[in-house]
Amino acid sequence: MNKKLLKKLLKRLRRVLPKQRILTDPGELQLYDADGLSLHRSAPAGVALVTTTQEVQGVVRALREHGVPFVPRGAGTGLSGGAVPQNGAWLVDVNRMRGVEIHARDRYAIVEPGVINLELDQAAAQHGLRFAPDPSSQKACTVGGNVAENSGGPHCFLHGMTTRHVLGVSVVLPDGELVELGGPPGSAVTDDWRGLFVGSEGTLGIATRAIVSLVPRPAEVRTVLATFASLRDSCETVAAIIQSGVRPAALEILDRLTIRAVEASRYRAGYPQDAAAVLLIEQEGASFEIAEDAPVIDAACRDHGAITVEEATDPKARQRLWQGRKGAFGAMGRINTDLYVLDGVVPRTKLADVIEEVQEIGRRYDLQLSNVFHAGDGNLHPNISFDANDAELTARVEAAGHEILQLCVAAGGTLSGEHGIGLEKKEFMPLVFNDADLATQRAVRQAIDPAGLANPGKIFPTGRGCTEAGHRTQQHAARTAQILDDPTA
Questions:
Q1: Which of 29, 69, 114, 435 could, after both became Cys, cross-link 89 (CB 3.0–4.6 A)?
Q2: 3-state DSSP call for residue 380?
C-alpha cells in the first residue's frame, strides 16, 4: 500500500476507531503473519482492533471505500491458512468482542465472535447445559472462528459439527451492511442463508454475533481407554463398534509417537508408552443406556485385539484421559519446532487401510509423522513435525501432505473434515468439485462480494499447480485403489 493511500485510509479509520486500536507498525504486524498452520506466512498491511458491530461496519466501509481487502481474525488458531492475509489485506481483529447471553429456558446463547469456545461451555454449565462442539483447541479458539470453519471436535461424532448448533448469525457483509441470518428458536426462517454462511471461511463477510443452541449436560458419562498392539486393530475396533449399532459420543485414536509425545509433556495422561495405539471411547446418556451398551463396546475392543480396556473410575480420571487427547497437538512441540496438522476424511471402512498408507507416505518422505484423529467420523489428522527453517525438509513435508490429501479423496473421502480449505487446500478443490460446481460457488461469492475484498485468495484454486496436482492424483489414485483392494500390494 502506497503512503498516500495509507494516509487517506488511516484518516478515515480514525473516524471509527481510536488511534491505539489501529496497528501499522511492521513489528506489530509481524505478530499476525500466520495462523496455526506455519507453512503459510504473510503479514497484513494493517490491523483494526474492533469491539462492537458498529465498529466492524465502520472499518469494513472504510476499507471498501479505498478498495482495500480485509480478513476477519479471532484467536488465530485455524489450521488451513484461512486467517493469513493476502493481496495487501488488513485484518479485522474481533478478539475483543466477548459478550455472552445465556437463555437457559430456551436452551440457546447469544455470543460475540471473540468468545472462547470453552468459556461459552463453562457459562452454559452453570445452567446444566453445554455447547457441544469441542475442538482440540477449545481452550483458545473462538466461536467466531468455529462458525467460519464449521469446526468439529471429539464429541461431534454424536452431536454434529458447529453448523448443527448455529441457529442464527449477524453478519457484516463486504459492503458494510448488517444482515441477520436465521434467529432464535421459533424464528420464521425461509431460505437457509445461515447454512450458506457457516463454513464460508470469512469470504462472505464477518460474523459479529452468533445464536447457538445449547444441549443438556449428560446424566451420566462413561470413559474407556483401550490399548492395542497395532494401529490397524484400533481402527477395525471403531468400525466394529459402529457396525454393532452402538453410538458412543466420541471415538478417538492416538498412535505410538503421539502417545510418547503426550507422556513426555505436561499433558501426560498415563497412556501406556509400549502400546502401538490407544482408543479413547466416551459414552453419554442415561444410566440404563450406558449399562446396556458398555458390554458391546468392551467386547468389540477385546474381539479386535485390545490388550487392556480401562474404565475411568471418577471425574478426575476421566479428565486425565482427555487431557492427553486435548493436549496432543501441543505436546508435538517436543518433537520439533513446527507442526503441519493435516485434515482429511475417509470412509470408516477404509480407515485402517488408509492409515497404513499414510504411515508409508511418512516413511517414504523420511518424515516424523504421527496420527491422532476423530476415528468415529473417519476424520484423519496426520501430524508432520518439522523445522520450517529447513527448506528441503519443508518441501518434503508439503509434498507428503499433498499426497495424503490425494489419498483421502481417492479412497472415497474428501479434503477437509473441520479445518477448512483456506490457502492449504485450495489448489486441490478440483479433486472434489467439477468445473460447474466451482463456477456455482464462485458465482455465489461474486454476488455477495463483487469487489472480491472479503478474505481474497482463499478456497478457490488459482490454477497454479492444478494441472500438475491432477496428473499426480491420477497416478496416485491408481496406486491407492490397488492398495485398498490388496493391502499387500
A1: 69
A2: strand
pLDDT category at 467 given cuts 50, 70, 90 is: very low
pLDDT band at 471 (very low <50, low <70, confident <90, very high): very low
380, 364 contact by CB (below 8 A): no
Q: Which residues pair with 308 in a beta bridge?
A: 227
Q: With bands split at pLDDT 50, 70 and 90, how would you rate the model's confidence at 472?
A: very low
Please give the full DSSP string across 94-145, using - where no structure is assigned.
-TT---EEEETTTTEEEE-TT-BHHHHHHHHHTTTEE-----TTTTT-BHHH
Q: Which of 209, 6, 205, 2 is nearest to 92 (CA)?
A: 205
Angle at 351 between CA 401 and CA 35, to 5 degrees: 35
- For 319, the enclosing helix (H) or strand (E) is helix 315-326
Q: Average pLDDT of 431-451?
A: 97
Q: How many residues does the chain have?
A: 489
Q: Strand, helix or coil at 418? A: coil
Torsion angle, alpha carbons of 374, 319, 328, 484, to 10: -20
Rounded CA-CA distance 60/181 in Å is 19
Cβ neighbours of residue 475 under 8 Å, at least 6 residues apart? Answer: none
Q: What is the DSSP letter of 429?
A: G
Average pLDDT over residues 39-45: 96
Residue 464's pLDDT is 57
**Average pLDDT score over residue span 399-406:** 97
Q: In one letter, which amino acid is 34?
A: A
Where would I find the H helices in 218-255?
A: 231-243
pLDDT tens track for 310-361: 999 999 999 999 999 999 999 999 999 999 999 999 999 999 999 999 999 9
Q: Taken in order 397, 398, 401, 403, is the CA torsion positive or negative?
A: negative
Percentage of the chain lying above the pLDDT 70 cut = 95
CA of 373: how far to CAs of 196, 225, 280, 342, 354, in Å?
Answer: 27, 15, 11, 10, 13
Cα 276–chain centre separation: 26
| DSSP conformation class of 411 | T
Tracing cell 467466531 back to the chain, one arrives at 144
Question: Based on C-alpha coordinates, what's the Rg of the chain?
Answer: 23
